[in-house]
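Hey all, sorry for the wall of text incoming. These are the two entities for the joint prediction.
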Amino acid sequence: MAPGLMEAVAPAALPPAPDLDRMRRERTQRVRDAMRRKGIDALILLGNTNVTYATGVVWPLADGGRAGFERPVAVVVADDESPHLFSPIREDDRLRAHLPRDNVHGPAYLDFDEGVRDFVAALRGLIQADAVIAMDEWTHAMQREQTLLFASEPVDGGRVMSSVKLLKTPDEVSCMREGLRITERGMAEVQARIAPGVRQTELTATFLRTIFDAGADANVLDPIWQVMPTRVEDGPWTTTGDLACPLLSTERELEEGDVLWVDAGISYAGFHSDFGRTWIVGREPDARQRRQFERWRSIMSAVLDVTRAGATAGDLTAAAIDAHGGSKPWMPHFYLGHGLGIDSAEMPFVGSDIGEAFDASYVLQAGMVLVLEPIVWEDGFAGYRSEEVLLITDDGWLPMTDYPYDPF
Amino acid sequence: MTGRPRDRSVVTSTEVVPDDPALRYARRDRVLAEMEAANVDVLVVGREANARYVSGAPRLWLAGSRPFGPGCVLVRETGAVHLMSTWDEGVPEDIPHENLYGITFNAGNFVKVLRDIDGAATARTVATDALNPSAAALLPQSFPSARLVDGDRLLRRARRVKTPEEIDAIRASVHVAERSLAMAEAALAPGVTERQLTGVFMETMAEAGVTTPSTQDVAWITSREHPWRRASRDAPVAAGDLVAFEAGVILGGYVGEVARTHQVGARDEPGRALHERRDELWDRLLHTCRPGALLTGLLDAYDAAGEAAPPMPVARGLGLGFDQPVVSHDLPDTAADEVLEAGMVLALTAFVWQEGVGAAYGTEPVVITADGLEMLSMTPFRDQWAW
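and here's what came out:
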């Protein structure tokens, strides 16, 4: 059995328990520094994960439909060191611990003209009439409000957030590590249940029960237990002509010999986790499958050899392509790798359709957290895919995941 | 090891299939009629529930809000649906392969995909359900002759009254929520934590074949000091605590939600009195639920019962995702502007709180009918609290 990445390299020197107060303080400071650089007086955030970043407030994320209406809204004001929160939940111990009472407001129903009117009335108590406002997104009811929100064209607040969340502090890395640990605990329970006759949804049941018991705030993605076809053409039609993945889980029963590509993620302390492995149902991998895994490992190893602060995304894709004999070992609709943090997939994207010029110019920095997910595919014989999560450091990287490659 | 016994009463599937044609066509026709009425040529939707409403295709469930992106496009003149999907699994046969476009991380590729849609070049009015700064900047490049307008209101109008097939879909979802909730309720005992009760609910839901919750905040110990105070999810429940459960699942895209409150261990007199207050409030709420009634009536029911405004909306629409109307004491003018109509489905909430005791809380999904209402749950809370 092949040990996980963390066991295979030197033990990781990751920080111990996070200081959440310091983490929140530093984040708010970063947001306000970025606002100052861009001349923004007030930053209004609607996106759930952006609100968490700016305010430090964590809640169990709901289905997108509900999350779109019942959403906490953050307002960061340049000359107020504490962010403001408009929230249906005003008396949460997690809020009261770190936000001044005056900064916690009632819910903002921004899909309704009346809700926007009340929100703008509250904003007038916080900012000047001619304030430069940035927003990550807006509703049409907000867009109809022309006296403050759209008195002039809003600045792109999403861009502000993309830049500040990019580099993780040791406290943030520590939170992420715990989220990954919880995910791995859930996966260990699932993997012990893998057998012919078990339904995909039962695997999800085991995963969900375990992650909540182990401390997850929420599940963030309907877990994937995809039974891979042996040939691309035996799977669904795709826009790319390549593999269809990830496909939704159903009540399909697993059969002996099924090749499962697993993908899941949870949220913990406002961070999303990621996990990817290949498992074989009810059998040991055969010689060909072991060769696929060894090939995957050699690609991962080639990429890791060039991964460090100062390397470009293009250096990573070139190493992967070279180790794969000249073609890209990833799915064309995705990427070789992506950033991870408050969102399941965030910058930097490595090998995506943003293009080779972008990859060549994108320089990795210490403090980025990167998920690498190369694949090996042998049409006619399926393939191998796993994911590893790394922290980029000045002289290389540190593994943040510890899950073995069992049964390989 | 083999699979656990399967709950045959829940109809799910071993394949990813599109929504039933009866659902799909009725929904799309409603949207097309609203586009016609609003003179909108092209509708670009980002919210997942809106994309499913228009397309009938299930896509990967993700928790939380998502930034606006062109998830689905509906062209009025041709009725053509264009869908962001890299594959055709679960895509209805009326959306041909050439109308599918893959995930992209490159905004320029979105511009191109949308520009190439038949009708994009000549569209005069393009509606979206939300916007962000980059989409606001890029959409004019795809639709050079068009004005960008509000598509949210037309979708709300299309969605607010449900078809009979939609009501059946919501009912099926409610039943899964109830059944999953029953297992969490059975686990309620001194020492168990909110987190563990949530875990039991999620596990049962997924074993029933449904892996997508509408809320992941399933259980909480109501506060004796404040109507709506949340403590740590890891705090153990104690005898006498009033514990609220909010159970919601997404089945076939449709949300089914119920909420219940239970006292841990022996029920005491203050708990009984509080539940009587809740039931009195509930009866008043039900009494106002008639077609033609102003939504304000639901807010007034709280005043008439002498109860304070609840910390959550009194009523929320149920449908695909989260729907109209939203009836809240924070939105009195909005409520005064709208009436109940037959075919609306509401999650209706009675919430009462007593200092030193806690909260008693119940939410029932109800459908407004021609002559009143119908309860969608199998075991409404009003009948459960037997002493």
